[in-house]
Amino acid sequence: MIVVVGSPAWRDADPAGPAGRACEIALAAAARGVAVEIVGRAGDDRVGDSLLIALAQAGVGHAAVLRDPVVPTPILPPLPDADPTELLADAPEPGRPGIARGPRLEPADVALGLSYLTAFGVLVVADDAPEDVLPACVDGAAFSGARIVVLVPAGRRLPDGLPAEATVLAAPDVADDGAFAAVVGAYAAALDLGEDAAAAFRAATSQTGWAGAEDGDEG
Q1: DSSP secondary-structure letter at 55?
Q2: Fewest CB atoms less than 10 Å from the CB: which of 57, 99, 111, 120?
Q3: Given this structure, which CATH class describes domain 2-217?
Q4: 161: left (phi over 0), alpha (psi -120 to 50) or beta
């Protein structure tokens, strides 16, 4: 099983559906026939309901998605009459694509979610996850004996404390219509099926036809 940690969002477009890097990766992996769960936070609202239903229909589990009664589920892209800068999350690298203000995932949320999902072989930390949840992700992956894949946003330093076998991928800082998420999802699926990191990465880039990924560290 694959677990993706990040910030789920909703795309208010045609067609409407789950949005944001974490959701895109989870959907891409599930499309390859592997079990996938997402760890994150969504608003306790109708948009959040629609988001979780759509994920479930696509084969992505949401047992570890917490519902926030105060902060609404983020909607992407911004409405035509909205100021996009008002919807961007507070982050060291403002303007990252696909990051909208919404419920904030906390380290304790990740630890709790992973305690429910102990039987997983791959953990993906999306670049829309807050940086401070990474230690909880590393601990959860170590407890489960899972491979960990970390997406690092453009301009952010390489995280400390990662295991030697971790894969670090540089996330693009421009919108790419889900192409990067597709290759990460394919890579995670190949790892979950028992491929070694190098073979899984070659297979993922070949299958998706995407040549923009940079493998920072395959261990």
Answers
A1: H
A2: 57
A3: alpha beta
A4: left
